[in-house]
Design the sequence.
């Protein structure tokens, strides 16, 4: 059974988006004093009851009915509202209790009169109990007794949720399956992000227009691929700071950045007809700063070639070279050429996204990681600095998504950024992290004298490692494993590449 949908409708500037965020429990939709901020349908999952007896529904925010859009998108907004109302299982008709009954309120009521969907009349902005008496005139709308709430002052939320629970269908599905992967679509305005989202949803989920800046909110769109649930996040086109003229642009940019942080894979949309701009590079820098797997998506490729079916044309290779040159620090990230309007290469792009997602969640054994590290150091040892020799004791992967590797060294100041980049390139080449960013930390190992019991255990472990014939190179190690080539009493034990931390502490104590 499909998840029940509760749709919020009303005239502009009655607090629909504030009510939506309040019920969802987090700031999702943009809220501003300017009327007509919301254009697309914005959705969120809401839970009723505790975890043992939970019921779920999808809450949907819509644009204001009767809104006059400054970008001449009123018809598109109305079409989104009609679609939401036709799919609704319950409608929340929102009015402003602080203002008298408006003609637009009556127009909304007239439109709802022809629907068989149950409706709850919600009087928003009832910030204190004394204002509830003003709601008498709203009985004229013919929707029974209204419920007075205040999203700003957190009034009567339980009462509203109880009414929703009573009117929703009794047959409830299980908790919706979590998305296997979250994909965020970011880029400059008018690069085709919303067209791509509509292609994934197989519906007019987002308003598409030639006017840049059509999308304002970051909208979550659920879709399925090969019977697996996915989440696509459409974001507003990011503008340069100098062109951010009002609060709406600021909120849009802020939510786009938040969507990047939420995503598992980021699709950075590029328009080949406009070339690579400084803003594209700034977006790429932010994605790299967040260590997110990224694919450079060259959309509208059909406008660049004479014959889209001719794969032999060299334009694709030339533009790929331009992209790699523009994003030198992210040249390892893959590149995809698509036409979102026709769906060309869209599924291949999603398959590539899944590949990056799997790479980001891989974990490598400490033994394998240290073998690669040993080979890298042997091929290109770090340079001596300040009359001190840099030493790397061992490495271990401590996290995934992004893969996080910690190197334990004698001093972090002895390893400059150039050598760290060298190690990252080696890891990316030798490990299954070819197309994703790797987070590298260096940590100075502290020396502490072991106690008597620890020393005995270390000696026993060392003796087993040398005389017992254990194959240390093929073992997996925990976070206490270290790499060293110590000398004990003049006896060279260089063949022991991986030994316990206690052994290193003991040897350091003996050397001193």
Sequence:
């Amino acid at each position: 059974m499909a998840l029940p949908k509760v749709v919020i409708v009303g005239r502009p500037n009655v607090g629909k988006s504030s009510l939506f965020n309040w019920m969802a429990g987090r700031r999702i939709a943009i809220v501003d004093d300017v009327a007509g901020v919301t254009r697309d349908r914005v959705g969120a999952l809401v839970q009723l009851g505790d975890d043992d007896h939970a019921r779920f529904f999808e809450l949907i925010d819509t644009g204001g009915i009767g809104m006059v859009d400054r970008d001449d998108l009123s018809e598109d907004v109305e079409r989104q509202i009609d679609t939401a109302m036709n799919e609704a299982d319950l409608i929340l008709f929102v009015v402003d209790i602080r203002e008298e009954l408006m003609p637009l309120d009556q127009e909304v009521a007239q439109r709802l009169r022809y629907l068989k969907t149950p409706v709850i009349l919600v009087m928003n902005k009832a910030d204190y109990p004394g204002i509830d008496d003003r709601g008498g005139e709203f009985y004229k709308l013919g929707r029974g007794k209204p419920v007075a709430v205040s999203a700003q002052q957190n009034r009567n939320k339980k009462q509203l949720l109880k009414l929703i629970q009573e009117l929703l269908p009794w047959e409830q599905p299980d908790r919706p399956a979590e998305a296997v992967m979250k994909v965020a679509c970011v880029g400059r305005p008018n690069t085709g992000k919303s067209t791509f989202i509509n292609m994934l949803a197989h519906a007019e989920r987002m308003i598409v227009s030639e006017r840049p800046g059509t999308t304002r909110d970051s909208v979550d769109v659920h879709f399925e691929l090969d019977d697996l649930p996915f989440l696509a996040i459409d974001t507003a086109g990011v503008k340069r700071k100098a062109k951010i003229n009002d609060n709406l642009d600021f909120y849009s940019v802020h939510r786009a950045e938040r969507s990047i942080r939420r995503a598992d894979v980021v699709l950075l949309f590029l328009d080949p007809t406009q070339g690579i701009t400084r803003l594209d590079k700034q977006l790429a820098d932010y994605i790299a700063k967040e260590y997110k797997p990224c694919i450079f998506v060259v959309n509208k490729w059909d406008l660049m070639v004479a014959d889209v079916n001719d794969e032999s044309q060299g334009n694709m290779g030339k533009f790929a070279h331009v992209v790699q040159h523009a994003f030198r620090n992210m040249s390892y990230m893959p590149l995809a050429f698509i036409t979102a309007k026709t769906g060309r290469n869209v599924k291949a792009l999603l398959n590539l996204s899944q590949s990056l997602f799997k790479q980001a969640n891989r974990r490598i054994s400490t033994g394998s990681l240290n073998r690669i590290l040993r080979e890298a150091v042997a091929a290109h040892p770090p340079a001596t600095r300040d009359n001190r020799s840099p030493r790397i004791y061992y490495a271990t992967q401590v996290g995934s998504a992004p893969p996080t590797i910690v190197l334990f060294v004698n001093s972090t100041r002895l390893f400059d950024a150039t050598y760290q980049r060298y190690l990252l390139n080696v890891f990316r080449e030798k490990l299954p992290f070819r197309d994703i960013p790797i987070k590298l930390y260096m940590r100075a190992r502290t020396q502490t004298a072991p106690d008597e019991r620890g020393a005995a255990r270390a000696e026993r472990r060392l003796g087993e490692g040398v005389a017992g014939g254990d194959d240390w190179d093929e073992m997996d190690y925990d976070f206490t494993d270290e790499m060293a080539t110590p000398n004990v009493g003049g006896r060279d034990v260089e063949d022991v590449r991986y030994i316990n931390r206690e052994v290193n502490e003991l040897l350091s104590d003996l050397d001193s």
